[in-house]
Amino acid sequence: MRIAVYEPDIPQNLGAMLRLAACMGIPTDVVGPCGFPFAIENPSADKQLRRVVMDYATLTDVTGHQSWQAYTESTGHSHGRLLLLTTSGDTHYADFAYREDDTLLVGRESGGVPKEIHDQADARIRIPLAPGARSLNVVVAAAIVLGEALRQTSSFPLDTGRNKGDEASS
To answer: Collapsing DSSP states into helix, strand and coil, what is residue 4?
Structure first.
């Protein structure tokens, strides 16, 4: 399982996405250009990233790509299926059968992804929303779908951070 973030607009959202990925042990691809200064060629060295991700920066497995073309050339779909999270998706996220090699793609906060990327996705996944609601924050959407995908594939990270005495209540 991977997360790909297409041309993020908001540094705090990218930081939260990378923290989510770090906590779940999921590698992340950041597809540029970003809407803020970001060292896409060496994300781990980026000062702003370290500030936003805080002490989770050392746990992140993040790869930067200069463009969508660079991303597709680099991965060559070697990461399995590309699943686009979109409000215009045709498949309910809980009804989809996930695989361990899937990549969850989220678009720009300000406008999603262009039609040609929509067309490249192997599936377009949606989260049902209440009437009148336009969309969820991209990190919230990724967390909801990632949780379901990890549940289905039994791929949640091992819980090694239990407090002493938790074994008795398990």
So the answer is: strand
Report the distance separating Cα 153 and Cα 131, nearest Å: 31
- Give the CA distances from residue 120 to residues 115, 116, 117, in Å, rounded to whole numbers and listed in that order: 9, 6, 5
29 closest CA partner among 62, 52, 53, 72 = 62
Q: Can you list the domains of the chain with their CATH numbers?
A: 2-158 (3.40.1280.10)
Q: Which residues pair with 91 in a beta bridge?
A: 125
Among 73, 133, 77, 132, which Cα is nearest to 105's? 77
CA 51 to chain centroid, in Å, comes to 19
Torsion 154-90-124-145 (CA) sign: negative
- Which residue carries 């050392």 as its tokens? 58
What are the C-alpha distances in Å from 30 to residues 13, 58, 110, 158, 163? 12, 16, 16, 25, 34
pLDDT in tens, 110-168: 999 999 999 999 999 999 999 999 999 999 999 999 999 999 999 999 866 654 444 44
Q: For Cα atoms 2, 108, 62, give the angle at the middle one, nearest 5 degrees.
A: 35
Q: Give the separation between CA 90 and CA 151, rounded to whole angstroms.
A: 21
Global confidence as pTM: 0.88
6 and 68 Cβ atoms separated by less than 8 Å: yes
